[in-house]
């Protein structure tokens, strides 16, 4: 498993902390940026970079995205095929997102978390396996079906 990590200026400090913490813990981390604090950067760019990499090998790779609220990153990441991104503000949410929904990208809101909270959330998320319960697999298959339907051209159908 490779963990791709990215953040805009609002999440930059927390990303630097997490990247170091994860590497120290022996996790393979690829930092896709930003590599410096830049108040003019955009969360869209970093979310796209992480989501594209996770989308390629979605069963094995993971991603962590950090912006001010975490919401913008979550929206962008979920536009990519085979990505199941979730915003988590507590370890319990991180656990549920992995256990129930097999998420492969974790989104964090730097405006609402300190380093200790973030560490607990991230470690819970990384260490929680997908439960593989039938009801959870069925729901994930439903999500995949929605993705496939949305990728097909509408061919004159009313999009509503």
Give the strand content: 5-15%
Order of H and E elements: EHEHEHEHEHH
Q: Main β-sheet: number of strands, strand sense, barrel status?
A: 5 strands, parallel
How many strand segments?
A: 5
The largest beta-sheet arranges its strands as: 2-1-3-5-4
Structural class: alpha/beta
Form type? globular
Q: Please estimate the helix content.
A: 40-55%
Distinct helical segment count:
6
- In CATH, the topology is named Ribose 5-phosphate Isomerase B, Chain: A
Under the CATH scheme, the architecture is 3-Layer(aba) Sandwich
**How far apart, in Å, are the first and last alpha carbons?**
39 Å
Q: Could you name the CATH homologous superfamily? A: Sugar-phosphate isomerase, RpiB/LacA/LacB
Overall residue-averaged pLDDT value: 93
Radius of gyration: 16 Å
Question: What ranges have pLDDT less than 50 throughout 5 or more consecutive residues?
Answer: none
CATH hierarchy class name: Alpha Beta
Number of domains: 1
Description:
The chain has 6 helices and 5 strands; from the N terminus they run E-H-E-H-E-H-E-H-E-H-H. The chain has 160 residues and is an alpha/beta fold. It has a single domain (3-151), classed as Ribose 5-phosphate Isomerase B, Chain: A (3-Layer(aba) Sandwich). It has a 5-stranded parallel β-sheet, sandwiched between helices. Helix 4 links the parallel strand 4 (85-87) and strand 5. The longest helix is centred in the C-terminal third of the chain and has 18 residues, at 134-151. The protein starts with a strand and ends in a 9-residue tail after the last helix.
